UniProtKB/TrEMBL annotation:
Record key words, sorted: Coiled coil, Leucine-rich repeat, Nucleotide-binding, Plant defense, Repeat
GO terms of molecular function: ADP binding
Organism name: Digitaria exilis
Domain Disease resistance N-terminal: 13-102
Name under which the protein is recorded: Uncharacterized protein
Keyword match Protein transport: no
All residue ranges annotated as the Disease resistance R13L4/SHOC-2-like LRR domain in the record: 587-921
Domain Disease resistance protein winged helix: 465-536
Domain NB-ARC: 195-376
UniProt xrefs under InterPro entries: Apaf_helical, Disease_R_plants, LRR_dom_sf, LRR_R13L4/SHOC2-like, NB-ARC, P-loop_NTPase, RX-like_CC, Rx_N
Family membership: Belongs to the disease resistance NB-LRR family.
Pfam families: LRR_14, NB-ARC, Rx_N, WHD_DRP
Gene Ontology biological-process entries: defense response to bacterium; innate immune response-activating signaling pathway; plant-type hypersensitive response
Domain of life: Eukaryota
Length: 924
């Protein structure tokens, strides 16, 4: 695995650098200074090295010598330093001086060329030094015969390996979030755990731990129990991923957010003082207050809590105080690898432990064949593989994670011959055959990593940036891959499409587990199994791919230079750490500070001159001075902050300007609500940000000058705009610019929070509406449905809120040919009857109906024949009821949500589901 990691990271660095060297050769100052010849020679040397790397990647990846690895490290460091040298030049060249004083500006125009020539002189000296270093690296390769370790591309062809065509990669993702090994043996295990939870009908609080080592499927079992309808009378529930290095505050906040579903039904709730949010200001609450609010909310309810991945008795002691023993038959389910932890949690005699055993051999075999052949059995054509399959499965020792990982790799082999499979079996070594240890699991999971094409390996190593048990969202992840430059050979505007397909490839190979899947089949978020995360994190550190602070498990001491930095806890940057490490951040390209409650001691944004990727998720300590320093990072490609200084418009390379946040309501976050006072304020000068692709969410009333400049952003694909408390005239400059973006936008959100004001009428008269829209969200009152919406043949997802439509809404929308998801949020429809008539909504898979205030009847009369997910919230019981569920042959689940859940409606749906041919699940 070592050499594969080196190849993927180093070849990626060189590919980025070669493009930059070509670009800098066109600069007039380079031509004038005479350094162009030096740069050209360096570029040619590095091109040869890159070709060697490609040959290395195409050959054998398992038997490279230490000499080869050392040579690769030297190539990588030369490439990194050369990239730093070029970016320092760009950094200087991108800084514009604007004093608003004509005399000062005139003087600056005279002085600037002189400064540039000085920079070019320094560049020339550094390039010559780098050229000498590159020459010495090449000489070492010949001197020590490193090339003997290389394998040619022809060897790869002979082995039958090929690189997938990602432009035409088929997405074969499941319609629902079900792990592969849920299909084999999980139902019986679920019944057993539910029986332990329910047996005895005890009124007191009962705790049931699931115990077993990593990879057995404890989390999958816990999720299945959590979703099960077998447990009756549960009034509230929550699922918490604890992990080894958890943050108690974050866990308690997550618990409260799951337990308390906030309602924004009051139409007058958008004022700053009258907003009805019981969790407002939760980030500032003391831990004792968080615990007290949890106990208060739970004390009169029958609750069900899952604590996944508990590591120590102290963890249980910290968390259990939030759960009152209220004599309401409440239940807590725990998963842990440590039996001592399980026994510590079971303090009462009625608490019982469920021991998670390895999957029996025959079930492992079914699971294996499902993964390889999409069948419970080995097809007759491959009967000769049955014996070698037994050997492979014996080494997997009944661990579902190992079976799925190896099965996924073998499913992709071209010829499926005994010889191919024997090679895999031999590489497994002893595996888990004699002892089900983490070491054996690592060996198995490493094979799945090796099987990735070289251009996917760097993307996969990058997942180690995120902490354990972190739910990685699709959008931020693919944007970061693109910003890091891991993708090449595509036009820049298509980069995110390509990276999105890479994520699908990881899911198809069962390397990551999807946690949320959209109705379109798109993976919205995923997780990496903690054992796989440990594998890739260790490799990232070993190859100086990513450095870590604040995580005591992974030491980055000895890294030559920090290139990518991930800070994961508040403990980082302590005085002790500052004394022990002389850390320099001047070479750092990527900085991730994940949910730190206070600013790390060692961090000053002025250190990060060459930063191009910045993620400050959950960092509420940012000051105006921090933002000013951030806005000096002219190479920055990504950020996510709210209040922006004027200098933000100087970030000409910035691609994503994202602000604000959502509240999520349903079990797996399908229903969400944007918090109205979290939108971005953008200053004048937006037109200078030519690279911008996504802006969300912008306050149009406070950014009126910027809205007039929107139309000049030709690469803009996503735009989310909000007007909170002002009249419809504020939309005029935005609408004018929207007409100029008719061919670039794919995603548009328009939010008008003005107390039932009919302020969106200007959008009825758009001259050039965005014809290629795939997602549209309209929040605000309209007299009629804009006619241009009905011509959006590419529209996949439509969300409406507080539009006060009635009558013919469904007959109009039902003719949209590509619509897969329809979300009718609160008061988007105010009629009394929603009827899905025949021949309407041919491709619809997801429907949300959220508190339509006057609804008396919901009918399915042959329309929406492909509907899979139905999500409903009612303020009252529909007078006439819900009809025609039997006319939805593909229905898989029905979910009820909201503060008021009408029991009679839920019970009626459960009865309908029992006789439905597809047996859909019903959640509440």
């Amino acid at each position: 695995m070592e050499a594969a990691a080196v190849v993927s990271s180093t070849e990626g660095v060189l590919r980025i650098l070669l493009g930059k060297l070509g670009a800098v050769l066109t600069e007039k100052y380079v031509l004038l200074s005479g350094v162009g010849r030096e740069i050209q020679e360096l570029k040619e040397d590095l091109e040869i090295m890159n070709a060697c790397l490609r040959d290395l990647a195409a050959g054998s990846e398992y038997h490279h010598s230490e000499q080869t690895r050392a040579w690769m490290k030297q190539v990588r460091e030369v490439a990194y330093d050369a990239e730093d040298c070029i970016d320092i030049f760009w950094y200087h060249n991108s800084h514009r001086h604007c004093s608003h004083n004509p005399i000062v500006d005139w003087l600056h125009k005279i002085i600037r060329p002189l400064k540039t020539l000085r920079v070019m002189h320094n560049l020339a000296i550094e390039i010559r030094d780098l050229k000498d270093r590159a020459l010495k690296v090449s000489e070492r390769r010949l001197r020590y015969r490193v090339e003997a370790a290389f394998g040619g591309a022809s060897d790869a062809c002979a082995a039958g390996r090929s690189t997938p065509d990602y432009n035409h990669l088929e997405r074969q993702l499941p319609a629902l979030n079900i792990d592969e090994w849920q299909l084999v043996g999980i139902n019986e295990k679920t019944k057993s755990v539910v029986k332990l939870l329910e047996d005895g009908n005890l009124a007191c609080l009962k705790v049931v731990p699931i115990v077993g080592f990593g990879g057995l499927g404890k989390t999958t079992l816990a999720v299945n129990v959590y979703k099960s309808t077998a447990m009756k009378g549960i009034q509230t529930r929550a699922f918490l991923a604890v992990s080894q290095h958890y943050d108690l505050r974050i866990l308690l906040e997550s618990l409260l957010r799951q337990l308390i579903r906030v309602s924004f039904r009051d139409p007058n709730c958008y004022g700053e003082e009258t907003i009805k949010d019981p969790l407002r200001g939760i980030e500032s609450w003391h831990i004792s207050e968080l615990i007290g609010r949890c106990r208060t909310h739970l004390e009169d309810k029958r609750y069900f809590i899952v604590l996944d991945d508990l590591w120590s008795p102290e963890d249980w002691a910290n968390l259990k105080v939030a759960f009152p023993n209220n004599d309401k038959q409440s239940r807590i389910l725990i998963t842990t690898r440590n039996r001592n932890v399980a026994e510590h949690c079971c303090s009462d005699t009625h608490d019982l432990i469920y021991n998670m055993e390895p999957v029996p051999f025959e079930e492992s075999k079914k699971l294996f064949y499902k993964k390889v052949f999409k069948s419970d059995e080995c097809p007759p054509l491959y009967d000769d593989l049955d014996l070698i399959s037994n050997s492979i499965l014996k080494k997997c020792s009944g661990l579902p994670l190992a079976v799925v990982s190896i099965g996924g790799m073998l499913a992709r082999t071209k010829n499926k011959t005994i010889a191919e499979w024997e090679k895999v079996c031999n590489r497994l070594g002893s595996g888990l055959e004699t002892s089900a240890t983490i070491g054996g699991m690592r060996r198995i999971l490493s094979l799945g990593y090796h099987d990735l094409p070289y251009n996917l390996k760097a993307c996969f190593l990058y997942l180690s940036v995120f902490p354990e048990d972190y739910e990685t969202k699709r959008g931020p992840l693919v944007r970061r891959w693109a910003a890091e430059g891991f993708i090449s050979g595509m036009h820049e505007t298509n980069l995110e499409e390509v990276t999105a397909k890479y994520l699908d490839e990881f899911v198809n190979r069962s390397i990551v587990t999807p946690t949320r899947i959209a109705s379109t089949g798109l993976v919205k978020s995923c997780k990496v199994h903690d054992i796989m995360l440990d594998v890739i994190t260790s490799k990232s550190i070993q190859e100086n791919f990513i450095s870590f602070m604040g995580n005591q498990r992974y030491s980055t001491t000895g890294h030559d230079k920090i290139r990518r930095l991930s800070i994961q806890t508040d403990s980082c940057g302590s005085d002790k750490e500052q004394e022990n490490h002389n850390i320099s951040f001047s070479h750092t390209r990527s900085l991730s500070i994940m949910c730190c409650r206070k600013k790390p001691v060692l961090i000053s944004f002025s250190f990060f001159k060459l930063l191009r990727v910045l993620d400050l998720e959950g960092c509420w300590w940012l000051t105006n001075e921090d933002l000013k320093e951030i806005c000096k990072m002219s190479l920055l490609r990504e950020t996510s902050i709210r209040e922006l200084p004027d200098t933000i418009t100087e970030l000409a390379n910035l691609k994503h300007l994202l602000g604000g946040r959502y509240k999520h309501y349903t079990r797996i976050s399908r229903v969400k609500h944007f918090e109205p006072h979290e939108a971005l304020v953008i200053p004048r000068g937006l037109k200078n940000m030519k690279s911008i692709q996504k802006i969300a969410h912008v306050d149009i009333a406070s950014s009126s000058s910027a809205m007039q400049e929107l139309g000049s952003l030709s690469q803009l694909t996503k735009l989310c705009a909000l007007n909170c408390g002002y009249g419809g005239e504020k939309w005029k400059p935005f609408a004018a610019s929207l007409n100029m973006l008719c061919k670039s936008l794919w995603h548009l959100s328009i939010i008008h929070l003005c107390d039932r004001d009919v302020g969106l009428e200007i959008f009825l008269r758009l001259k050039s509406p965005p014809i290629f829209l795939e997602q549209l969200y309209v929040w605000g009152r309209l007299s009629v449905l804009p006619p241009w919406i009905l011509s959006l043949s590419y529209l996949v997802e439509l969300s409406l809120r507080e539009n006060f439509f009635d009558g013919e809404l469904l007959r109009q929308l039902g003719k949209l040919p590509s619509l897969v998801s329809l979300k009718l949020y609160h008061e988007s429809f105010v009629g009394t009857k929603l009827c899905f008539e025949q021949n309407l909504f041919p491709r619809l898979k997801q429907l949300i109906v959220d508190n339509a205030p006057n609804l008396d009847e919901l009918r399915f009369d042959g329309g929406a024949p492909n509907l899979e997910r139905l999500t409903l919230a009612f303020e009252r019981e529909p007078a006439k009821g819900i009809f025609g569920i039997e006319n939805l042959p593909r229905l898989k689940e029905v979910e009820f949500f909201g503060e008021v859940i009408v029991d009679s409606v839920v019970e009626g749906m459960i009865a309908e589901a029992k006789i439905h041919p597809n047996r859909p699940r019903v959640y509440r």
